[in-house]
Amino acid sequence: MSGARNASAGRALAALLLWLGLAMAGAATSRSAAAAPAPVLGMNLAGISDWSTEHPFLDLMKSSRPWIGHLPGRWGGVEAEALVTAGHVDAGGRLLSIPPGVKHVGTLILTDQPEAAVSLAGRYVLRHEGRGEVSVGGRAREVSRAPGEIRFDYTPGHGAVEIEVAAIDARDPLRDISVVREDRLPHAAAGALFNPDWLALVSDLRLLRVMDWMETNGSKAQRWEDRPRQTDQRWTEGVPAEVLARLANEIGADLWVTLPHLADDAYARGFAELMYEALDPRLKLHAEWSNEVWNFGFRQAKWAEEQAKARWGEEAPGDAWMQFAGLRAAQVADIWAEVFGAQAKARLVRVIGVQTGWRGLEAAALD
Asked: Span of the secretion signal (predicted)?
């Protein structure tokens, strides 16, 4: 079985970073010249959702819940997956049509925000291209409407802003739905993407780990062509790589990305090439394959175990899943190093994660 162990993993991986962020000290040296001096601090960013209190994007539709169909006289009845399967919602989360027998299709934003979050209160503007019957409800109080636009007032508290679509004109379908606070419209019109209030909270960070933004745990993503796109209606199933790089560039922080465990070689190469071009070369990229592959609470650990058995048989030793994880991590790390070439030493940190409370497990991945 020693041949099964990935002897090249230790050589191929440029760094072993534990979850406690032991390598953050090096991040300060690559901060953007525009960034203010700050403590050396790195952090995981919480995932994107309609109930999150973070609100990183100006356009709240990027944090919206998947569309669901509401049958007459009841809440729901047609789940999000069924709408996609039947072709009423596309892969980018855009609503294309209303199913027969459905009263309306709806989504939620600003769900259960604390009453103390007074900065969220105010007037919001929903805009869309195309034609259809669109309305707002829940905690939204409509104040005016015009073709392609609804303005509403919102105060935080229990419940959500409900966005409902009862009909869509097939000749001019709804598209490009956005919801931006009225006083932020000039920012959005100027091309800003991030909420300035949120940017102020994270601007001192020198390392951003975006595993949850990428929805890495249990991800089904395999092919580069199926990655999240900037034009997607919502980013709750993965924030586009271009947006990750843009955030790091704007605040001058090194970036830590974590690829899905099913990502094929073309996905790894495409992601690496995009980051090579998009990320400020003064910043370091921490590149990791999957997350907590040692943790059987996640699908990726079970998948690694299945792959190890398929490769080495049922008699594989008990740590075979971590041996396979080390093998795949090394393969992906080699791809990243090849893409970054002569700049790899200055710009790239290749990462493999282990459990600090499970000493010795790292040997299976690295030996």
From this structure: 1-35
